[in-house]
Write a structure and sequence with these properties.
Largest sheet: none
Distance between the termini: 54 Å
Oligomer: single chain
Number of helices: 18
Structural class: mainly alpha
Mean pLDDT: 84
Helix content: over 70%
Low-confidence stretches: none
Strand content: under 5%
């Protein structure tokens, strides 16, 4: 009897090993493809933001004419970005992560060629015009599209293998978007594919690592955020991060509520749609002339906050309020674009504000940059409710592993607050409310 069981176990292990070996080339190909697309996408977004800054500097001295020109360009860009999505690939609206989760749950095929083209173009155009759109979500969906394309090229592919390649491609896209392979892997296991078998883990790990190698080979080894090293706070100071987690959970719930309430704006038609686009273009134009740093994905804002002396409390609160409103509005413009980086930017501002409010109450004040860095992960947790992804992502983005304890304190407090408020994770909520369209 024991011999039969042992023989059966050896057969099972042999089949699993053969399956992993068969999937290895596809996992490598998905990672390389997703990494290359993510690198091209990132460079295009950086180029679009640089061109916008140059254009704003050029028209700054021509106030009235500059306002008219910038408003016209912003309105045209929003209309084209959103119209392209509506006409060619409605499934690319917004970040794309809710659609991918719905596709994986229903074992649906992606229109991968359309997704690649429309997602890339719409996000680039909207971001270049000044909308608050990030690269994370689009990179995830485009990576999954690469996985779908390679899956269709293979013969005899089972539905399970195809789903594994889709999820692995999504993780690889995130890994390449932020030079963060462990974050991509964690995102697959925590958000996209929660079965977490050895095969899913193996394929996702290979895809994420190969995508990250492509990214590092083409863009360099540096972490995404270059900030001065901040030592870990003393254990007696960890309680200071509890209020930050509470604020992140509360405002994360508000963000999710407004995102869901704003869904109807993206579905407007006729003159109402043009009125909404004109209002959004007006907000972008006003912000461009008042504080252009607040436009775009948000990395420039985070870099300035973390590498300089920061801002006064009034400025931080004003910046946070403007970015908060524009992020929700941009996400519901109908154009493609993610919320990863915009949420991180909001979290950094929230963390800095909390440091200015909490710092005077502490015997040994904590560096505000540490609060801002932890705030990114905490607010991400309050919105997405994927704390492990948030923690690993910030560690990889900063290259600072000394942050682990304050990250855990703030993120799991934010998760508890979100659970107490019965707030659904944003991607699950959008998937359920829109049938996976957003």
């Amino acid at each position: 009897m024991g011999g039969r069981i042992e023989h059966s176990n050896r057969q099972t292990i042999g089949v699993a090993d053969a399956h992993r070996h068969r999937m290895l080339p596809q996992a490598l190909a998905v990672g390389v493809g997703a990494g290359f697309i993510a690198v091209c996408f990132r460079l295009s977004l950086d180029g679009g933001e640089a061109y916008r800054q140059q254009f704003l500097a050029h028209v700054a001295g021509r106030h009235e004419l500059g306002i008219v020109v910038l408003f016209g360009i912003a309105l045209a860009a929003i209309a084209v970005a959103a119209g392209t999505v509506s006409l060619l690939a409605p499934e690319t609206a917004g970040s794309g992560v809710p659609q991918l989760k719905a596709d994986l749950a229903a074992n649906r095929r992606l229109r991968w060629v359309r997704i690649l083209f429309v997602k890339f173009f719409s996000t680039w155009l909207g971001n270049s015009a000044g909308l608050i759109l990030g690269r994370g979500g689009p990179s995830v969906q485009m990576g999954a599209a690469i996985g779908q394309g390679l899956s269709q090229l293979g013969s005899g592919r089972s539905p399970r293998d195809s789903a594994i390649l889709l999820a692995a491609g999504g993780g690889a896209g995130l890994a390449a978007a932020f030079n963060a392979p462990l974050s991509g892997l964690t995102f697959v296991l925590e958000e996209l594919d929660r079965r977490c078998s050895t095969l899913e883990f193996f394929v996702a790990a290979v895809a994420c690592l190969s995508a990250d190698m492509v990214c590092r080979a083409l863009l360099g080894q540096d972490a995404t955020f270059q900030i001065p090293f901040t030592p870990a706070p003393a254990l007696t100071q960890l309680s200071a991060f509890l209020p930050l987690g509470v604020c992140a959970g509360l405002f994360g719930a508000l963000f999710n509520y407004l995102m869901l309430r704003g869904r109807s704006l993206a579905d407007l038609r006729g003159w109402r749609r043009w009125l909404w686009w004109a209002l959004l273009a007006g907000l972008v134009t006003f912000t461009a002339f008042r504080s252009p740093l607040l436009l775009g994905g948000g990395q420039a804002l985070i870099d300035q906050l973390l590498n300089r002396d920061g801002f006064a409390l009034q400025i931080v609160l004003a910046y946070w309020s403007i970015r908060f409103g524009l992020t929700v509005a941009s996400a519901n413009s109908g154009a493609a674009g993610g919320i990863f980086m915009p949420v991180l930017a909001l979290g950094a501002l929230l963390g800095w504000a909390c440091s200015l409010l909490i710092g005077p109450l502490l015997d040994n004040p904590v560096d505000p940059r540490l609060f801002a860095t932890v705030g990114m992960a905490a607010f991400f947790t309050g919105v997405v409710q994927a704390p492990l992804t948030a923690i690993v992502l910030i560690i990889e983005l900063t290259g600072n592993y000394a942050l682990i304890l304050p990250l855990f304190v703030a993120c799991f407090m934010a998760l508890l607050i979100a659970g107490w408020l019965k707030t659904s994770p944003i991607y699950d909520a959008l998937m359920k409310s829109a049938g996976g369209r957003r």
